[in-house]
Specification:
The chain is α+β, with helices and mostly antiparallel strands. 59% of the residues lie in helices and 14% in strands. It is built from eleven helices and twelve strands. The protein has a seven-stranded antiparallel β-sheet. A five-stranded antiparallel β-sheet has the order 3-2-1-12-11. Helix 3 packs antiparallel against helix 4 and helix 3 crosses helix 11.
Length: 325
């Protein structure tokens, strides 16, 4: 692999990343979405998801210019229907297997259901990344994902096996390898991404986090999570022409602790109605603590990516809450 040298900016300027969304705006979107979902017996859900995505993207600013999500409810609705038809079929055969007197049929159905869900997760991640990024642009420049679904599925299958074989110890290496594969296939016009974190580093962070969280009765957990997120973010690099730079990330345990504490108080005293405000605060915490060094010339980005209209992965990812925001 090409040696990557973290560049030092000639000046203090950076490409600023910020989130400017407001809680009342998101609350209004949630209220309208909830009403329309109830009126349409859930069929409005894909359009509701698009409305929220557009709000989040347009309020995520890179050098004071928001991102644009051009996906639409019709595209998500097609994936929504296909996924839930398959899910209904899986649930139906499981109900049948539960009521049958044959232990062989029951065991086979349960095994095949497990295999189905193990396979569907990497395929959903692949599909969601292709669709979401192809429908996202900044100043007209599309993002893109060039990964191969079979390769990602293979990496997941090997990872599942090694996690089981090592009783969970391999999890840190598995997560690290999946991140590395995904990031090396991300594109922002002619800008390339990569990730060079190491599984052993994540493993040590996790072990230290678990031990100290137990010893401090959970208090250290916030410092552990901040270190984990900071490590992940700081090992993302961006390459344009001959310049290769790392993302700057400033996540502190004390800040994460206060974020969760205030979020809890908001939810407690609003009986959950303040969820939109806590979500805005969390997004701001994640985005506003990131900066991109000025060596990346955003004015020199050229269009290289194509559209991709199959949104079924988007619906599956959302159903399982797999964290692709």
């Amino acid at each position: 692999m090409e040696e990557i040298i973290e560049s030092t900016p000639i000046n203090n300027k950076t490409n600023d990343v910020a989130f400017k969304g407001k809680g009342f705006e998101l609350l209004g979107i949630y209220i309208i979405n909830w009403l329309l979902i109830c009126i349409t017996l859930g069929l409005y859900y894909p359009w509701a998801r698009v409305t929220k995505l557009r709000f989040v993207y347009q309020n995520t600013l890179l050098n004071n210019t928001g991102f644009v999500f051009t996906g639409n409810g019709k595209e998500l609705f097609k994936g929504f229907i296909r996924f839930y038809l398959v899910l209904a079929f899986i649930i139906s055969i499981n109900i049948f297997a539960t009521t049958t007197a044959s232990i062989e049929i029951y065991s086979i159905v349960k095994f095949l259901t497990l295999i189905f869900f193990l396979i569907i997760v990497p395929l959903a991640i692949h599909g969601a990344l292709r669709y979401r990024l192809s429908r996202t642009n900044w100043r007209g420049i599309h993002l893109g994902y060039r990964g191969d679904r079979i390769r990602l599925l293979w990496d997941f299958c090997i990872g599942y096996f090694l996690i089981s074989f090592t009783f969970g110890i391999y999890t840190s290496w598995f997560v690290n390898n999946i991140r590395k594969y995904i990031f090396q296939n991300l594109r922002f016009g002619n800008v390339y991404f990569g990730y060079d974190g190491k599984g052993i580093d994540l493993f040590l962070i996790n072990i230290k986090g678990i031990i100290f969280s137990i010893l401090t009765l959970g208090i250290y957990y916030f410092w552990y999570r901040a270190e984990y997120i900071r490590y992940f973010a700081k090992h993302i690099y961006i390459k344009q022409f001959e310049n290769t730079v790392y993302v700057n990330a400033e996540y502190k345990g004390s800040s994460l602790f206060m974020l969760h504490l205030v979020n809890f108080i908001i939810l407690l005293f609003t009986l959950g109605l303040g969820y939109a405000f806590t979500e805005i605060r969390t997004i701001k915490f994640i985005i506003n603590n990131l900066t991109i060094p000025s060596e990346i010339n955003l004015d020199a980005i050229d269009q290289t990516e194509d559209d991709y209209s199959d949104a079924i992965g988007e619906d599956i990812v959302d159903f399982f809450d797999l964290g692709i925001a």
